[in-house]
From TrEMBL, chain A:
It comes from Mediterraneibacter hominis. The lineage of its organism: Bacteria, Bacillati, Bacillota, Clostridia, Lachnospirales. The keyword Cell membrane applies. CDD domains: EcfT (cd16914). It is a multi-pass membrane protein. InterPro entries: ABC/ECF_trnsptr_transmembrane, ECF_transporter_component, EcfT. It holds the Pfam family CbiQ. Keywords: Cell membrane, Membrane, Transmembrane, Transmembrane helix, Transport. GO terms for molecular function: transmembrane transporter activity. It is found in: Cell membrane. This is Energy-coupling factor transporter transmembrane protein EcfT.
TrEMBL record, chain B:
ATP-binding (A) component of a common energy-coupling factor (ECF) ABC-transporter complex. GO terms for cellular component: ATP-binding cassette (ABC) transporter complex. The keyword Nucleotide-binding applies. Its EC number is 7.-.-.-. It comes from Mediterraneibacter hominis. SMART domains: AAA. One of its GO terms (molecular function) is ATP binding. Pfam families: ABC_tran. PROSITE patterns: ABC_TRANSPORTER_1, ABC_TRANSPORTER_2. This is Energy-coupling factor transporter ATP-binding protein EcfA2.
Amino acid sequence: MIRDITIGQYYPAKSVIHRLDPRAKIVCTLLFLVSLFVQNSLLGYVIATAFLGTVIHLSKVPLKFIVKGLKPILILLLFTVVMNLFLNKGGETLVSFWIFQITENGLRVSVFMAIRLMYLVAGSSIMTFTTTPNALTDGIEKLLYPLNKIKVPVHEVAMMMSIALRFIPILLEETDKIMKAQIARGADLESGNILQRAKAMVPILVPLFVSAFRRANDLAMAMEARCYRGGEGRTKMKPLVYHGRDRVAYVIVLVYLAAVFCVGRFVPFSIWIF
Amino acid sequence: MSIKLEEICYVYSPGTAYEQHALKNVNLEIPNGQFAGIIGHTGSGKSTLIQHLNGLVKATSGRLYYEGKNIYEEGYDLKKLRSQVGLVFQYPEHQLFEVDVLSDVCFGPKNQGLSPEECKKKAVEALHLVGLSEECYGQSPFELSGGQKRRVAIAGVLAMHPKVLVLDEPTAGLDPKGRDEILDQIESLHKKTGMTVILVSHSMEDIAKYVERIIVMNQGEKMLDGSPKEVFSHYQELEQVGLCAPQVTYIMHDLKKRGFQVSTDVTTVEEAAEEIINSLKRERQ
């Protein structure tokens, strides 16, 4: 039951995208997200769609997975679309009833907002689908390394992040196991009002917390036994090194960003929508 | 009056990159009152299999009958099934949560809708069965030793008075003394109450002494099924799948190879000793 969560999950495959340096992937994803918000034209979105489509195709992650990842934002998406549809004024009025009006402007903004949100999630899930959590934190650590100069404990934060990420599947599995064990003892988790259901969670939460503390304790002990003492002077078994493909990726994304930006600036919107 | 599995298949995470066939076409019947052992290597599907027995996991395909009724039929009372087929998970002490031992054991009977007095009566009974001393009843379950915690957890399932008791690796992580104590108690429980007991393990030595039937699982399939003597006679096949027969089986086979007139189908150390003495006596005559 709990196994079906896909957001932020790694999809193992052998593809160019999987092989890219995590730093390149993080920066490129950020640039892609920026590209969605600096422009406002149909042609721009056509280019973004083509770009995203190509990346998804290259990554060999089935489209089904990415669509599944969109499900959690469905409500947010609907809310945004409806709000924008009715609250944006300006342009020709297309439909009007009672106090509601749908204007040309509202329609445009709501459609674009929907596309932006969906691409935002799809773009970032492509990154998490193709990068293992460990590589991701490695990349973040390296990218943020300059902050060390102003006394930000970058390594410690990155270590905490990777430990937290590592614990997610463990705790999910543990929850699943404890839930099953309590159901086997006749626990009823599904019926009753909110209060009863909250009470029914106690037999699951108490053992879960106990086990989380136990595991954290064991891990701390194991790290200390191997002389872990923070980031200072610590080297990596697999240091991150940029390859040719990473440079190519940067160039492609920069060209894409420039293209989208120019299209948004210099090609008038009206040509493309009508 | 039994548990019967027909063509049970189970697939983990179907349609994803992590798809995995945990059970393939398993047919099995366990009559009432039997003391059966399920054995298999890690990942052989034994834990998945036993979670089917009380309907915690629903088979991807196949049918499961409990006392003649298909439990996958609509309207089947799974809650009642779960109170009749008690399942003790691996490391069951990790599911303890109450403030004291007695109320933790009461959790099962309470869910069956019994009155507090009845719950308490059943809990005390169950704690007696697993041999926990009375001064522990008021203690927090988290203060007990590993072996004691495990007894409490097993009592938590026993208190529901199941007709079938399924134990997944009840001795994992216990020292040899704790292991023997728990297994001896399970055996005497089986004798006293006549309930069906299904014991899951990956160690032949552990279960050879106790069970009357062994089911060997390998890669989601039932590989062997029979009395310990029958199963251990396939010791070479067992080795191929990463299991092994009890040490005495090997000793007896080696002795026979070197010309001693011993029978090779003994399963326990005691039987082996007797067999060797008898064979020596025969030789002397």
